[in-house]
Amino acid sequence: MSENNKLSEKFLEVLQHEGVVTIVSWGIETHVANTWNSYLVVTEDERILIPAYGFRKTEKNVDVNNKVKITLGSKDVLGYKDYPGTGFVIDGTARYISEGSEYDFMKEKFSFLTRVLEITVDTAKQML
């Protein structure tokens, strides 16, 4: 992994185990939405794609302020000093995708989606 990568091998390992993902947005109002680790897809350029069915308040916030925070983790992945579990806080920029090759790829994988929430990662910090 190159030094320019923001998403560590430990982060990718967490995605291999189920857990809750929390997405925090603020614009019109502060809003918290949830999804699952298994729904996140990381692209080669380290964007995170999330299938969106609901997320309407998140979308309204992103239209006003496209900054978001995401937290996720798993108790099944060892953290620092062999702590039983680890988690991450991601700061990023969000936008919604409703057409194109990435939308089509995600729609095939998650038939329920109506849009794709794309997060461009600014920082990813391991917390435990």
Tell me about this structure.
By secondary structure, the chain is α+β, with helices and mostly antiparallel strands. The protein has a single domain (9-126), classed as Roll (Pnp Oxidase, Chain A). It has helices spanning 9-15, 56-64, 101-109, and strands spanning 20-25, 31-36, 41-42, 47-52, 67-78, 84-97, 115-126. A seven-stranded antiparallel beta sheet has the order 2-1-5-6-7-4-3. A hairpin with a 4-residue loop joins β3 (41-42) and β4 (47-52).
Brief summary of the model shown:
The chain has 128 residues and is an alpha+beta fold. Helices cover 20% and strands 45% of the residues.
What layout of secondary structure does this protein have?
Elements: H1 9-15, E1 20-25, E2 31-36, E3 41-42, E4 47-52, H2 56-64, E5 67-78, E6 84-97, H3 101-109, E7 115-126
Antiparallel strand pairs: 1-2, 1-5, 3-4, 4-7, 5-6, 6-7
Number of strands: 7
Radius of gyration: 14 Å
Q: What is the total number of structural domains?
A: 1
Broad CATH class: Mainly Beta
CATH topology call: Pnp Oxidase, Chain A
Instruction: Walk across the major sheet and give the strand order.
Output: 2-1-5-6-7-4-3
Derived structural class: alpha+beta
What separation lies between the terminal Cα atoms? 21 Å
**Number of contiguous helices:** 3
Percentage of residues assigned to helices? 10-25%
Question: What is the makeup of the main sheet?
Answer: 7 strands, antiparallel
Sequence of secondary-structure elements: HEEEEHEEHE
Which spans of ≥5 residues are poorly predicted at pLDDT below 50?
A: none
Write the CATH homologous superfamily: Electron Transport, Fmn-binding Protein, Chain A
